[in-house]
Amino acid sequence: MKHGKRPTLKQRERISKLKYKGRNLNPENWLVVKDTSEEFVLVNKNSGHQEKYSK
């Protein structure tokens, strides 16, 4: 698995609007693995769980 990087301000704003299991994500708990025009891939700092979101 790739290592994530700390999200930028714009990425943190986007992460806080995303939903996982009906709840908003906390940007402090997620790292950005991939941010392309098609998808946004995040990995959780604590559990290592990876989530993919299409744009």
TrEMBL record:
<dbReference type="Pfam" id="PF21847">
    <property type="entry name" value="DUF6906"/>
</dbReference>
<feature type="domain" description="DUF6906">
    <location>
        <begin position="1"/>
        <end position="53"/>
    </location>
</feature>
<dbReference type="InterPro" id="IPR054201">
    <property type="entry name" value="DUF6906"/>
</dbReference>
<protein>
    <recommendedName>
        <fullName>DUF6906 domain-containing protein</fullName>
    </recommendedName>
</protein>
